[in-house]
Amino acid sequence: MYEHIGGPKGLAAARKEPARRGIRLILDFVSNHTAQDHPWISDHPEYYIQGGVNDLANAPAAFFKADGKVIACGLCAWSEAFPRRPDREPENTCPCFSWAPSAGGAANTPSGLL
Fold it and tell me: Per-domain residue ranges for the chain?
């Protein structure tokens, strides 16, 4: 857990009130996409599914261009309120996900629930 969002202590504090009321907290972690203006788009384009100029020309709703790279983006089929989101490359091992279940992260808490 990142310290700038409270780290493990912040998460523990956020769990206290729901726990007091008999409610368990579910942590929703979305690792397959980010915002189009996320710093990784420029700093680490390898974290994303790459396309080419032909992909952009043939499917402009499914790709966008940033810093000379063509990046695939997810589309929300059920709502136009959500913008396109750059899709992460599933084979890329970004260090930011080192806390994931195999490293003893949140999914290893009792029942996977917080």
Answer: 1-30, 32-92
Burial class (CB in 10 A: 0-12, 13-18, 19+), 86: buried
Max CA distance (Å), the chain: 55
The pLDDT, as a whole number, for residue 83 is 63
pTM: 0.57
What pLDDT band is residue 69 in, cutting at 50, 70 and 90?
Answer: very high
Q: What is the 3-state secondary structure (H, E, C) of the chain?
A: CCHHHCHHHHHHHHHHHHHHCCCCCCCCCCCCECCCCCCHHHHCHHHECEECHHHHHHCCCCEEEECCEEEEEECCCCCCCCCCEEEECCCCCCHHHCCCHHHCCHHHCHHHCC
pLDDT at 70: 94
Q: Which amino acid makes up residue 54?
A: N
